[in-house]
Amino acid sequence: MPEAPLLVVKDLTVAFPGRREMVRAVRGVSFSMGREKLGIVGESGSGKSVTGRTLLGLTRKAAEVRAETLSFDGIDLLRADEKTWRRIRGRRISMVMQDPIFSLNPVMSVGSQIAEACRLHSRLSRGAARHRALGLLEAVRIRDPRRVFHLYPHEVSGGMGQRIMIAMMIAAGPDLLIADEPTSALDVTVRIQILAILDDLVTRRGMGLIFISHDLNLVAAFCDRVLIMYGGRILETCPADRLHEARHPYTRGLLSCMPEIGGPGGRLPTLERDPAWLAGDERS
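The structure assignment produced for this chain is given below.
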């Protein structure tokens, strides 16, 4: 008997107030996922991050969120009250933001912040929370976790800050982790290390992972499936290892715009967009 999906999204639309009318950032998005690595790719403004934030109930109060189905492990997220969201956020679903320096509290040591997350979700004593925080720092492969525990956010590098954020977000052992551009500001070596940590955590802990990125090659190598978004819509879904066989003109255009080492010189091609894509016509 097949396992029930962990997350089901059907016809999700998210709109924000504009000067004259509501602006739709997400338009009729539908997908489901289990405990797998799901990539969401697209240009800036395609609706990737808004989709991820909506799944965690982090849209602004003025936002208009509608869907036929938006459920997580059988919980109807559209009808969830604040008490239900408090049980879900951090404990069942966590989100790693793009830039840790703006997500961490600048006046608290990083270890204290991780320990605080442990106490919030697991009701541990101070000593037990500290021990748990040190273990989490070790889990994300930080050397000398006892020293790093006492550092402040401005004292750590971008790669270490991202590891600290991951440690904090897995403190409660969530079922689903949403990673929003977790490697975009990192160099290649540190990026590989962060991806290895995420892959190990997903495999060992049995979590689902939504990996939001604009790097098609990275997602193709790391994820199981890929959703390609444009203008708030999903234009194509394909297995990650067959991303380069994608058929939609938009996906083909994104792939062709990527430079290749040793490839032909000259100007890269310009992506030509079809207005029909915004109308949901995938046959273009």
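Interim note for the steering committee: The first helix runs from residue 48 to 55. The two ends are 37 Å apart (CA to CA).
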